[in-house]
Structure formats: structure tokens, C-alpha cells
Amino acid sequence: MRLRQIEIFNAVYQTGSISEAARGLNVAQPTVSKILKHTEDGLGFLLFRRVRGRLVATSEANILFKETIPIYNQIAKLKSTAENLKNPEDGKIRIVSVAALSIEILPKLIQRYREKHPASQFIYQTEHFNNMMSTLREYDKELGFALNPPAEEGLRELTIAESELVCIYGKGEFDDYPDRLSLSDLVGYDYVSIEASGPMSDILDHRLNEEGISYSSKLIAQTYFVARSMVALGSGIAVVDKFTATSQKPENISYKGFNPPLKFSVKALHLADRPLSRASEKFLDFVKNNFSDNYP
Question: Do both 80 and 100 map to the same domain?
């Protein structure tokens, strides 16, 4: 079956009517009838039988329909990608970031940029790191911002800033400790861990393995922000990025870094084989020049 035949077959299968299928596909009814008849002749069996004025799928058609679903989904994805590739200079700035940067810092930068460029339009999405990579590769978003992303083929990266992981706590647990903690200071406390936090968890895990330390956790949060909320409610302590620790911080939460620091980079990402639009390039320059002014 050719793609056009699959499209016609799916439309008739879902509507049970040649006229409705033609209307949905914006083609003439005789065209649908002709292609459907040609498809049945090529296959050597009927796809539909007319019952009380409606077309009812045969058992063979039911089997074929299940097989065409992934093909049809791939066609829809291809159309979406083609649409995303249109009008790269339309002035829209399509960005995606990990959640830690969406609590405060990127919204602040976007707002400051719009004050200078009120006609600019942003489409902003937050994702877990792996989903963020897919969003960029499928051309859904043009510019990404991530924390300590690993180098990936086909992606160009630009370092925006440096930051670190810190321990957040309540109830004054570490107020009497030095300004910086050691990882061993956290042993014995109720610890809120983070589930599948990607490249960031590798930094902490590597240091813990080096020092032979492990934390026991009965609370696992999906994001650093959720972990921070749990700490604010008295659930224990957590290790999060400094942006999450300082963005719109609840009054009962404090934080301290580690000695030696657990450092990471903030990077901008985009596809290497597709230059950024002028609008996105302009915003990226603004972020590079103003990022450090928007966090402690």
C-alpha cells in the first residue's frame, strides 16, 4: 500500500463513509472511491462491505488498520517536523529548558528581554533532560538550556554560567556548621532523593562513590522543586542545584554548599546542522550577557 492509499483507507475506516472521508481529507468523493477500489484490487480482497448505508470494515481491514497505525503516526510526526521547519525568521523564540531554570531565572530573563523588545514572542516549555533532547532533535523547539548536559553528536553547546549543588535544610540543622559542609555531614539525616535527575545526579553519585558515602532515602521526589517543597514541610534535607535552592525560596529553608564544591555548567544547546534564527540568536546573546545578574 502506498502512503496515499493508507491515508484514504484510514479515513474511510475511521468515518465509515466515503463522503465523510473525502470531506476530512479535502478531496473529491470520486477520488476516494477510485483509490479505495484500486487498493482493494491490488490487495486481492475487500476492505469494506456496505451495511445499512455505512461501510463496515472486514476482518482483513481490521488487521491492516492496526498495522498502519505506527506508519500513520510517523507521517503525522513528519508533517509536524516539516511545519516546525517553516518560517525560521518569523520572530518566535522557541525554547525548552530543564525545570530548575524555569522556577525563576529564565522567566526573569524573558521578561527583561521583552521589556527591551516588546514585539518578541516566546514559546517556552520545560522538560526532563532526556525529553528536552528529543524536543530539540524533532525541531519542536530551537534553543535549549540544561544543567551539565553531556556532549551529544549533532548538538552544539555554549557555556552560559557555572554554579553548584547545595544542601537545603530546615529547622536550623546546619546553622552551627561551617559555611560549607562535607558530604559526610549529611549522614544520618532524613534524606529526600531525586528520581532520574539525569546528568546532575551523576555529579553527586560520583563524589559519594569516591568518598565511600551513601544516604538512605525513604522519600524520592521527581524533581528538585518537589524535593525543596518536601524539605520546606519538614521531610528532611536534600541536595539540589543552587537555582532551585534560591529561586522564590520558602522562608524556613536555608542552604549551604560543599567543600570541595560540587560544580556544574549551565549550557545553551541547539542543533549543529541548523543555524539559529536571528530572533533566537539575539535572545541567546542577551542570556549570555545577563544571566549572572539574575541569580546569587
Answer: no
Q: Which of 67, 85, 103 is the last residue of a domain?
A: 85
Distance CA 281, CA 22 (A): 43
Question: CA 54, CA 50: separation in Å to the nearest integer?
Answer: 5
- Spatial neighbors of 127 by CB under 8 A, at least 6 apart, are 96, 97, 98, 99, 135
Determine the 3-state secondary structure of 258 from DSSP. Answer: strand
Spatial separation of the C-alpha atoms in residues 104 and 259, rounded to whole Å = 26
Residue 139 has which C-alpha cell? 525541531
Q: How far apart are CA 156 and CA 270, in angstroms?
A: 5
**CATH no. for residue 9?**
1.10.10.10
Q: How many domains does the chain have?
A: 3
94, 106, 126, 162 from 201: Cα distances, Å: 27, 22, 18, 16
Q: What is the pLDDT of residues 95-124, one digit of tens each?
A: 999 988 998 999 999 999 999 998 888 999
Confidence of residue 284 (pLDDT cuts 50, 70, 90): very high
Reported as a pLDDT band with limits 50, 70 and 90, residue 273 is confident
Q: Are residues 184 and 235 in the same domain?
A: yes
Condensed to tens digits (0 to 9), the pLDDT of residues 211-226 reads: 999 888 889 998 898 9
State if pTM tops 0.85.
Answer: no
Range 174-202 burial, b when 16+ CB lie within 10 A, else e:
beeeeeebebebbeebbbbbbeebbebee
